Structures are given as C-alpha cells and as structure tokens.
Amino acid sequence: MWEVSNQKLGVIEAAQSDKSEALVYTRNGSYTARGWTDWTRGFHIGSMLLQAEASDSKIILDYARNSTFRYIQPHLTNFGVHDHGFTVTSTYGTLLRQIDEGRISPNRWERRLYVQALLASGSVQAHRWTELGEGYGYIYSFNGPHSLFADTIRSLRALAIAYLLGGELWGEQDQHHSLLERIAAHIRTTSRYIVSFSGSTDGYAVPGRVTHEAIFNVRSGSFRCPSTQQGYSPFTTWTRGLSWVILGYAEMLEFFQMLPDHVRSGYKETEYELLRILQCTADYYIETSPKCGVPYWDTGAPGLRDLGDWSNRNADPFNEHEPVDSSAAAIAAQGLLRFGKIMGNAGSKYTRAGRKIAFVLLHEPYLSMDPQHQGLLLHSVYHWPRRWDYIPEGASIARGESVMWGDYHLRELAIYIDRLLDSKEYYTFANFSWNLAE
C-alpha cells in the first residue's frame, strides 16, 4: 500500500498546477476541488507526512513540512469552521508527534512553533461554542450556532492537544474556560442528541443509530430536532458520521485514560459515557454493515431494498442502486481496532472486525492499483444526496472514485497497524511530550 501511496501522491503534486483550492475528491480519476469550506487540505498534507513517516523519506517530509507552513497557517485562526481536528491536528499535530518521536531532527524553536500553532488551534476551536447549560454544550458546525455535527467529535483532538500542552481559553473580562470541561460537555451532548437509544429521541430510535446533525434553539438552549446534511434522512444513519463517532470516541477514551489520576478521577462518568457509546455504535456498525465491513453510504438508503439480502453479503461497489462508502470503512476500522485494544480480551469482537475491514480495504477492488488514477482508496463518496460524486458513463451511481479523507484515513490506519505489528510505541495523536517548558 505504501508503495502505491507514494506513487499517487507524486502524481497529484505533478498534476496540481493551481493550489488555491483544496482538493476534495476525484472525478474520472483526477483530484479536483469542491467549494464548501476548505476542510480537506489537512488530509492532503497530512497524507504526505504519514507517507514520509512510513517510507523514512526526508524529501517528502521537507516538502510536507513546508506545505504545512504555507497552506495550513491560515487555518490556525479560522473561527468559521469546526474542522481544526482535520486541518491542524493532521498537520501541525503530526509534526509535533514526529519531532518528539525522533523522526524529525530536534530543534527547539521548530518545536515551539508547532506547540504555539496547536495552542492557538485548540483555543480557536473551543471558542466556537454553544452553551446549553447544566453541563451540556458543543462546538458548533459551520452551519451556525444552532448546529451540532456528529463528525465534530474528532475535532476534540484539537482541544485535547492544547489541554495537554497547558493551553487555556480566556473569554470576556479574562474569564477562564476549561478546555477539558468543554471536551467533556461536547461528548455528553453528542451522546445525548446525536447517538440514539431505544425511545431516547424519536420513535425510530434504535441503540447505536447516529444522526448527522442535531438542531438547537440557541436562545433557550433546547433541542429541536435531528437533521442531516449528507445522509438520507435524520432518522437513518449516514455511515461516515457513524464511523467518525466510533473513531472519535475511541481516541477520546484513550485521551482520558492518559490523564494523571487526580485529574482523571473527576471524569469517571465521562469515561463510562465513552465506553457506553462506543459499544452501542460499534455493535450497530457491525450489525448494519455487509459481511466485508464496507458499508453503503446510509443505512436507510432507499435503493438498498433492491439489493435483496445485502447485509448478509459482501458489499457490491459495482451495483446500480446505492453507492458504498469505503472512506467510512477506513475510519471505522481504526476506531474498532482502538476500541478492541482498550477492552483487551473482552474486545476481541471489535479487533476482529477492524482487522477484517483493513484486510478488505488493502486489496482490490478498494486499493487503487491503476497508476493513472490519483486516488488511493476507491469506491468512496462525498455528498451523494446532492449528486456531487462522479458517475461513470453508463452507470447509475457513483463508483470507482476517491476522497481525500478516505485516502488519508487508509494511510493512518496503516500507520496504526504498522505500529502494532512491529511492537513499536503505540500510535495515538498525543504521542508527544506534555511539558510546555521544553
């Protein structure tokens, strides 16, 4: 995979003459931009950093590092998005980890640059806050203060890194806001309003179902309704959102388990909440996915009825009714593997599921072996309800294309597995020194 990945990244850079817009997805095998927000550039540059790590290439590392300074700098103070965990953590966060793991020659001032960037990013992300009261609140999406997205759970990495580095959030009249408290409140709110349980939010609720978006009345702080931007309906599960919940919760559980005992003891309920949500969403993913573990883009997609007993067969990316989303599988596989490791012997079910998905994705028809195709992970979709995804001539649905986050997450999954296979230091986003004074 890393050999193929290296070739793909080289082709993309050679073909990209205009770097003013971030690449999002492939159309007929070529990466192109799609305006919404500039949320994918961190995946692109982050992929280069992971490639440099896997291949021990100083040339790729220097190129990716310079690209981080040039293109990610404006994202550090971007108050308009909920995506800092995607844009900044995947670049500056990776660079800090790599310098502390000895993969980059130590340089005191360079490290300070990474630290200051991550402190700024964490505070900016935490500032994008809707307070609900009684211990609830959330980082709101780019749709506005009324909107909580499922995938924002992975942007909590930005707050977690800033907290570990000694960061603080100050508001009006020097009011101090705890980054750790905002992490816990966002988790509580996501658990209550994004993840469903039987009878919890609506008549269609089943344990582990994930809605993409929760809508609130920001004046009263009251929950109004479930919603979705990229799923089929508010009452079905957009599978990429489900996958980000699984991975985000697993990483947050790892984060809380890293904390000193005197701090961790105050968040036992948060850890219990993380475990509870992880189990129900992981079980839901396994139960509602095809046998191979690669899901269709939404569990309620209407064309699934034309696929017959689809859940008891391997996914068919070449069907004519509904697209699969391999990017959701790549995200979920890492989350399942992390959850399985956290649970030890009791987590073997999730470890096996994550391994199976990884095995499937690292082979054709999902691993892209065509040197002319710029994507690494095939059969991913971006926004199927709006039909933004490329449909090949003669087909009725999207297939055979890639998305930048899918490629990134396959590489990140491979880094995670590489560490386990080689008995190296366990890979987390927080593999760096927490002593800011350094």
Write up this protein.
This protein has 438 residues and is mainly alpha-helical. The protein has a domain at 126-421: Glycosyltransferase, CATH 1.50.10. It is 45% helix and 8% strand. It is built from 14 helices and 9 strands. It has a 3-stranded antiparallel β-sheet with strand order 5-8-9, with no helix packed on it. Strand 3 and strand 4 (136-139) form a beta hairpin. Helix 6 packs across helix 7 (156-164), helix 7 runs antiparallel to helix 8 and helix 12 packs parallel to helix 14 (404-421).
Please outline the helices and strands.
Elements: H1 2-15, E1 23-27, E2 30-33, H2 41-55, H3 58-72, H4 84-87, H5 89-100, H6 108-127, E3 129-133, E4 136-139, E5 147-149, H7 156-164, E6 169-170, E7 176-177, H8 179-193, E8 213-217, E9 222-227, H9 239-258, H10 261-264, H11 268-288, H12 326-343, H13 348-361, H14 404-421
Antiparallel strand pairs: 1-2, 3-4, 5-8, 6-7, 8-9
Helix pairs in contact: 1-2, 2-3, 2-5, 2-14, 5-6, 6-7, 7-8, 8-11, 9-11, 9-12, 12-13, 12-14
